[in-house]
Amino acid sequence: MKYQLGKALATISFLVAMIIVTTGSVQAQSQVRVNVPFDFTVANKTLPAGRYVVSRVQQYGTDSVLAISGANGHTHLICLTYAVRSLDTKGKVTLVFHRYGDQSFLSQVWSGDSSTGRAFAQSRSEREINRKAREAARNVVKNEAPMETISLAGEPLK
């Protein structure tokens, strides 16, 4: 009986330690700094070019709600995201933008070591631009793509 109790306590202690280690490592990667050289829109709000930090809203919460802050620490926007998966990892922290002409929209955020990223829902203005770009593309050469994808490397904040 004492042996089984000791074994159960050891197992529970190991699991608690693993949760603490995992939470700590996830938290260390939950903030991303990136220099965006162009104006961009996310959730119908246009932000100017500059240095930004993308982080979780709640320190130990899920990645579902992200904050986008300027280099001065001022939070510009809080957004709901959803999980997206890739067959391979990006290898580095990456922000993915969709560009239509001269307008750019933040689409996804990827940590470097995971095949799971976070995606932002398309805003109404991006959906409208996308629709118009597809219609225009039908009337021109088939090889022209109405949307360009831009990936910017960021750096994790510790």
Report on the architecture of this protein.
This protein is of the alpha+beta class. It has one domain (31-156). Helix content is 27%, strand content 41%. The protein has helices at 2-28, 124-138; strands at 31-36, 40-42, 45-47, 50-56, 65-70, 75-85, 94-100, 103-110, 116-120, 148-153, 155-156. The chain has a 9-stranded antiparallel β-sheet. It has a two-stranded antiparallel sheet with strand order 2-3. The relative contact order is 0.17.
Task: Measure the end-to-end span.
Answer: 45 Å
Oligomer: single chain
Helix content range of the residues, please?
25-40%
- What is the SS-derived class? alpha+beta
Instruction: Summarize the biggest pleated sheet.
Output: 9 strands, antiparallel
What is the radius of gyration computed over CA atoms, rounded to a whole number of angstroms?
Answer: 20 Å
Q: Determine the mean pLDDT.
A: 76
- What are the secondary-structure elements, in order, as H or E? HEEEEEEEEEHEE
- Which residues form runs of ≥5 with pLDDT under 50? 8-29
Number of helices: 2
DSSP E strands, number = 11
Adjacency order of strands in the biggest sheet: 10-7-8-9-6-5-4-1-11
Relative strand content:
35-45%
The global form is globular
User: How many structural domains does the protein architecture include?
Assistant: 1
